[in-house]
């Protein structure tokens, strides 16, 4: 079988201007009913996106990804095959910091130029899912100046070029039943911006490993040993598609980054996370990690198969 990016959900394209991340938990009150609802939703979800892309074509339409956790897959499709690398994410613990695992069954990542488009799509999705789910988290993100992270540095430098992004984000023929799917790791960071903003630009650059305004990478001897660019890079051929999205409630000071990493291999993302926590990534020194969970993003073909009742 051949990888076909057009059959994948939106896991390797633009992070978007207006973004919404939503994590839901199944109520687990009536398994047969919830299985039936998800089977129906797998078809309706694609219809919602098609309709919105027709309605909002002049404004760029909607890009979306919907995924399921390992626990959700086992509950909804107990007799079906499972993606090879799908597992339940477990808390990672290092010498100083931890990356906690949190609950979540269903994951949605919506983005569009127009916030009204995102609102309308999520509203329609919840019309179908509200009876069988509860909301774990809902986070609105936005594009910061020049596409920078909320801490002021150019974002996505370590991500693959657009021309090669699909090959790093989309499952290939190593798992033919789930080809064109993806593994999504979602993690919400809250930053203590008062601490970060008190640092000099030079110190911030050493902490990230790059120049703040030009984005030029520092020499190894100029970086801190635990600089983010140093500890989060596990090899030039071990890349994932990263979409770090700023969020903020400025008046309350609740500001941070919603990290979403799409990968052909979850093991690569996991290796990156382990390196960050083991080596004490500088970002962890002024941040609290609020959530973390792994989700499988089915291909459009797999969504069709779910809708047709082939997964039970």
Structure commentary:
- With 312 residues, the protein is of the alpha+beta class.
- It is built from nine helices and ten strands.
- It has helices spanning 31-55, 70-76, 115-129, 162-169, 193-198, 201-208, 228-231, 266-278, 300-307; strands spanning 18-26, 63-68, 92-93, 98-99, 106-112, 133-142, 182-191, 241-249, 254-263, 287-297.
- The two termini are 24 Å apart.
What ranges have pLDDT less than 50 throughout 5 or more consecutive residues?
none
User: Beta-sheet strand percentage?
Assistant: 15-25%
Main-sheet strand order equals 2-5-1-6
Helix content: 25-40%
Strand count, sense and closure of the main sheet? 4 strands, antiparallel
Q: Based on the structure, what is the oligomeric state of the protein chains?
A: single chain
SS content category: alpha+beta
Q: Would you tell me the overall average pLDDT?
A: 93
Put simply, the count of helices is 9
Q: How many DSSP E strands?
A: 10
Summarize the helix and strand pattern as letters.
EHEHEEEHEHEHHHEEHEH
Radius of gyration, whole Å: 19 Å
**Alpha carbon gap, first and last residue:** 24 Å
Shape designation: globular
Supply the key terms.
single chain; 312 residues; alpha+beta; four-stranded antiparallel β-sheet; 9 helices; 10 strands; globular
In summary, what is this structure?
With 312 residues, the chain is of the alpha+beta class.
How is the topology of this model organized?
Blueprint: E1 18-26, H1 31-55, E2 63-68, H2 70-76, E3 92-93, E4 98-99, E5 106-112, H3 115-129, E6 133-142, H4 162-169, E7 182-191, H5 193-198, H6 201-208, H7 228-231, E8 241-249, E9 254-263, H8 266-278, E10 287-297, H9 300-307
Helix pairs in contact: 1-3, 1-9
């Amino acid at each position: 079988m051949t990888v076909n990016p057009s059959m994948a959900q939106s896991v390797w394209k633009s992070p978007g201007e207006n973004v919404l991340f939503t994590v839901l938990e199944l109520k687990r009150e009536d398994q047969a009913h919830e299985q039936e609802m998800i089977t129906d939703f797998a078809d309706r979800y694609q219809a919602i996106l098609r309709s919105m892309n027709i309605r909002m074509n002049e404004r760029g339409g909607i890009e979306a990804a919907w995924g399921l956790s390992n626990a959700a897959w086992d509950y909804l499709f107990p007799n079906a095959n499972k993606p090879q690398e799908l597992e339940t994410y477990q808390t990672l613990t290092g010498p100083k910091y931890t990356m906690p695992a949190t609950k979540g069954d269903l994951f949605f990542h919506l983005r569009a130029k127009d916030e009204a488009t995102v609102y309308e799509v999520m509203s329609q999705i919840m019309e179908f899912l509200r009876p069988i789910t509860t909301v774990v988290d809902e986070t609105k993100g936005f594009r910061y100046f020049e596409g920078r992270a909320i801490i002021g540095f150019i974002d996505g430098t370590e991500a693959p070029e657009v021309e090669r992004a699909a090959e790093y984000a989309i499952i290939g023929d190593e798992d033919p039943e789930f080809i064109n799917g993806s593994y999504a790791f979602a993690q919400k960071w809250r930053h203590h911006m008062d601490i970060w903003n008190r640092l000099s630009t030079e110190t911030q650059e050493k902490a990230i490993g790059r120049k703040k305004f030009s984005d030029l990478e520092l020499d190894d001897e100029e970086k801190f040993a635990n600089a983010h660019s140093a500890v989060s890079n596990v090899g030039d051929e071990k890349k994932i598609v990263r979409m770090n999205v700023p969020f903020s409630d400025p008046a309350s000071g609740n500001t941070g980054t919603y990290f979403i990493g799409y990968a052909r291999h979850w093991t690569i993302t996991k290796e990156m996370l382990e390196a960050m926590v083991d080596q004490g990534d500088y970002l962890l020194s002024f941040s609290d990690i609020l959530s973390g969970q792994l989700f499988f993003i089915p291909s459009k073909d797999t969504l069709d198969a779910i809708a047709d009742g082939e997964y039970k």
